[in-house]
Write a structure and sequence with these properties.
Blueprint lengths: L12 H17 L12 H24 L1 H13 L1 H28 L1 H24 L7 H29 L12 H17 L2 H9 L11 H26 L3 H5 L3 H27 L2 H8 L2 H11 L8 H22 L3
């Protein structure tokens, strides 16, 4: 028997859906810190995010559960050590994907990059969730396929919007801050697809490592998040830590003021705070439902990209096509959530 002293929340379906959408807002908001980094190394920012996330998650876990946090991890490891190992590894792999994504966000902006990546993530993540974590009886295969078709349409329209924006801004020398070439766009697409094979590892961790309505074995929510955050920190050290060493930038990071570190701390609260909220929702729903809802964070990232002027001067057709991408994105997510 697993430890019963860990925190268990029995949420209604509607409230769990609300929490998934709240987590999506938090995930889609932490990226705006990239707008304030200036010349500060991206990997230094990444280091702060995942160090602060590690401290946040373990602090919340210990405060809420005390010794039960460690007891649950030990007991699950005794019964099935794979669930600990897979959760830890998935935490590391999805962070490697995020590191690639942040590079692309800086290169071509949030408004174009995020919908492309999110649509691919939602396809892969939903597939992994369905195969590993199971599918609720209320969610039909036909509806799931239709939702994926809507999301593929969102990918196509997002790419087209990026193309139109590039063509418009290439003729406007006053908007150099948001200019990029078609070569940058295609290179970014390759990197985004690479990242999209790594980021859904988060979903694999949820589906295999977390105890939920469709998964009787696995970690409770906060022990799961503790192991995942430890894996994420390891993934950050293998990517950003190595790059900081190779580029000899550790001195810049260690001597940076709170004025720059605060952006990483803010992002950690929204990133892993969103993870905690989303995981509680997943334990009451299932990954195949909570993941598509959570990946709607791309809509918020698009919103912030537009607020920060990434599509300024891009022309009406770019806005129309981007709007169509959003519509298909919402339809895809709704088709899944409506049968939760």
């Amino acid at each position: 028997m697993l430890s019963a002293s860990t925190v268990e929340l029995h949420l209604s379906t509607n409230f769990a859906i609300f929490l998934s959408l709240l987590a999506a807002f938090m995930w889609g908001t932490w990226f705006i810190s990239l707008k304030y980094l200036g010349d500060y190394p991206l990997d230094g920012f990444f280091l702060t995010v995942y160090l602060a996330s590690l401290i946040l998650v373990w602090s919340v876990g210990i405060c809420m559960e005390g010794s039960a946090l460690f007891a649950n991890i030990r007991e699950v490891y005794r019964l099935d050590p794979r669930r600990i190992a897979v959760t830890f590894l998935c935490g590391a792999l999805y962070v490697l994907g995020l590191r690639v994504s942040l590079y692309v966000f800086q290169l071509i902006g949030l408004s174009v990059a995020q919908p492309i990546q999110s649509s691919v993530n939602i396809l892969m993540g939903t597939f992994i969730s369905a195969v590993v974590g199971g599918t609720p009886a209320s969610l039909s295969l036909v509806r799931l396929v239709l939702a994926c078709t809507m999301l593929l349409a969102a990918v196509a329209f997002s790419v087209l919007a990026g193309k139109f924006r590039t063509e418009s801004l290439s003729n406007n020398k006053k908007l150099v801050n948001f200019r990029y070439t078609m070569r940058d766009l295609w290179r970014s697409l390759v990197l985004l697809f690479l990242a999209s094979f790594l980021i859904p590892m988060y979903t694999l961790g949820l589906s295999f490592g977390l105890r939920s309505t469709l998964q009787s074995q696995g970690l409770a929510v906060l022990p799961f998040m503790a192991v995942l955050s430890a894996g994420s920190f390891m993934g950050m050290m293998l990517s950003s830590g190595l790059l900081l060493t190779l580029r000899k930038q550790w001195g810049i990071v260690l001597h940076a003021s709170l004025a720059i570190h605060k952006f990483g701390i803010f992002s950690a609260i929204f990133h892993y705070g969103g993870n905690i909220i989303h995981t509680f929702a997943t334990s009451s729903l299932s990954p195949v439902i909570s993941w598509p809802l959570g990946v709607t964070f791309g809509l918020w990232t698009q919103f912030w990209g537009i607020v920060y002027g990434e599509f300024k001067g891009a022309g009406r057709r770019a806005y129309i096509v981007l709007g169509l991408a959003v519509v298909f994105y919402l339809l895809g997510a709704w088709l899944i959530a409506a049968q939760a």
